[in-house]
């Protein structure tokens, strides 16, 4: 029975992957049509149309359909970027007698000029290189271009002599399979392949003429249609009749938000990237035999799971239960599952195939190299991407779409130092460290504690506090005992995750706990050190901070466990709980807030099984890190207690100051 369920799990994965790729192919078969809204509102004495964004519509195409300048549309709707989400409600400035118009189609070129629509990162310099013309000639034809190039504005590129002499060639019309790209000055096989995210080898295979021919302006090449962004196709909107009068007067702008709430998303699209190793799982479940030199392949009667994919299958199962629970609540989740293995090249090929799916957010990939590839792609498509496991993501410093769920070591150190400083009176604080510790990442904990006690003046405010620091490598257990106080509680802090050292110190502290009152403060990783007796943690009143904790006494946890057992005939793992929380929380956030959900996640109140969420942006240009944690305590009465913690406002203000001091060690 168990193997049957696991096999069904694999079949489900294959079906979902197939459905995902099917969605990609379908996405190009239709063009977006913009229907002019008939609903009007009056806000602050000004009249607006309310337009509900549909699939494939862009802010640029909407502005053209209504005959409104893109910048004006962005300003009215409080947007700093020209992005929209499905079902978002836009306010369109309305003028009496206004008629719906067809969108303006920008000419690609004429006898004298090439007309270029400005994209992000375009500069006069880059355009001069792309079209092989001087910067001065571009600036001459476009007054003010030496200062800035507004996004989506049209720049006239004067043709050079070679371009003027190019004869118009017969270019085939785009069909269901191919887009026919016309070569421009400056194009190379490399630049074209790079623009459409394909290999040069594939480009040459589709266009054999490239093997023995130098590209010339006016030539054309075939590009698979599924690789071509929608912007490359002309927008074909049907002119609408004059706008029908349906005037609704609203007193305040808050009432517009109520209209928005009525069209909240009832469906979200989620990309799940996991190393499922589907091919390896197929291979190990095949038995190959030979009969008269003929190879015979049969399936194992009892399927086994490839060891590298085992935990990620559990993660996937947690997501499936979350999707089911959301479905019961009226929210449909369009789940697209992709097998990344641990292969950045395979992932890159997958990304090129799914670039036209309108995702609300991505979960994964889980490994650093594959996550880096996906994060770069997600940034170009403005898709929030969640790192579900790693606490170290370099991309979070510069990619605003990255969301890191596992709290970083720096943030955990901050939580510990605040915890110690809030309960320091009548305590003996002892920091136990290895002989050489200043180069360790955990050394930040010592710096944070000393900042709280000394630089903030807490140590000097009372005589009833003691602070000591000792090298265990130098002084051992007897030196450690010499730091103990027999008349007050000893808060022992061990800033290390070195397993042999931690186990040695905890073992010695356990002996001392028979004579002294000790509260050990450390890291969640220690719970996985199997050579330590569980009793040691209780004897030492061990306290730690972790973004994850499962309380099996809670009804919601037991309900999830029972559902998991009934459906998959196995026990949920830590990853199963985590995946369930991720899918529920972020799907509900995307449904409620649309594309703005990353900035409003802290407003969400979602009952979770394991996780504590509270997000803070790393910098003005960086991503979001989860700073929510549980304070977990192994008490001397052999009970585990927990409390959800959040970073306080005054603690955030301390961080800039501490960053400046972090390199003093």
From TrEMBL:
InterPro entries: LysM, LysM_dom_sf, Peripla_BP_I. The keyword Signal applies. Residues 1-29 form the signal peptide. Keywords: Signal. Residues 49-92, 114-157, 179-223 form the LysM domain. This is LysM domain-containing protein. It comes from Marinifilum flexuosum.
